[in-house]
Amino acid sequence: MEKEKNKRELYVFSLSSFLNDLGSDMIYPIWPLFVTVFLGADVVVLGFIDGIGDALVSISSAFSGYLSDKLRRRKIFVWTGYLSSGLARFGYALSPTWLYLALFKALDRAGKIRGAPRDAMVAELSSKSNRGSNFGFLRAMDNFGAIIGITLSILLLRYLGFRNLIFLAAIPSFFSVCIIYLFIKEKKFDTQKRSFSLNLFDRNFRLFVFVNGIFALGAFSYSFFLLYVKDIGFSIYTVPVFYLIFTISSTIFSYPFGKMADRIGRKKVLMISYLSFALVCSSLIFTRNFIGVIVIFSIYGLYKAAIDVSQKTLASEICPLDYRATSLGSFQLITGLMAFPASFIAGILWKTLGMNYPLYFSLTLSLAAFILINLVKEQKVC
Questions:
Q1: Which of 59, 169, 172, 318 meets the CB 3.0–4.6 Å disulfide criterion with 26?
Q2: Residues 77/113, Cβ–Cβ less than 8 Å
Q3: Cα separation of 319 and 209, whole Å?
Q4: In 3-state terms, the chain is what percent helix, strand and coil (to 5)?
Q5: Could you give the domains of the chain?
């Protein structure tokens, strides 16, 4: 009975995530074009806005993770997070200039307060034997929604234009709010036996956060990859197609990588993700033809699938279990705070030295993370 209930709740989380990603990924493939081409900002502004967004993801995740553990409540952070993202998308569509985008980006990414509490709920309804595959299934549903969203974006951009398309993209998040509110029941938690302290994080978990922080500093926003292919000669209507290829690849590999993480270990799959990102960066420096770029974005999707299922799963197992949401939030805080300078540095390197220099920078940090992650030990029992 409990097993069936857990499976049902996993499906509810997956459906709400599917709908939210359907809306968000109607915007993602056109976002860098909306900011730079439609509203006239440059790449440094794009990096600044994306960097602020990524940093706020982390801050909101850490904040909500701690409050979730402290208050022993998770559900409210999930549905209010979806609500925040839906409202922000209306704001994007109404923005008369790029100056307003940072505010709505902050609101949108603050919606990620749902992240750590939701991931903690998924981890708690899972066991050691299926946790990787459950996160993989959740991510696959994210990506399935993204595929539909990107396809709609490609088909409708010519007819609706940027603003109307973004208006349409806001709607699915409100369905996610309703689904979580109506069909997820708050679980009762035991009273915590110890107060939170950074000393709860052992050397192994801190090392894990440090290594992933190094990698995150080089993992700049996907926007730069899309701008890169535009600048080497592809039209603004072709650019979203590459984002679709990336998402299809990520969807195909999410569940298999989840199963692989259960079988061979989370760390090995995480190492695959680091190497994949390094390969994307090194290949894009030299590739200019259509087929080559398709292959690169396919590998980019493979990287995304591998890191999504392995990073959170490993973090949830080597952290203090009675502060799981706090630990996941703290992990996302550090990696996300690195994401702000990552995109900002990428924009400055692009503008001052040339568009290949962000790739050199990211390649170096990816290989450094690949070497250092070997020092992290996986948890044997959870």
A1: 169
A2: yes
A3: 11
A4: 85, 0, 15
A5: 2-182+201-375 (1.20.1250.20)
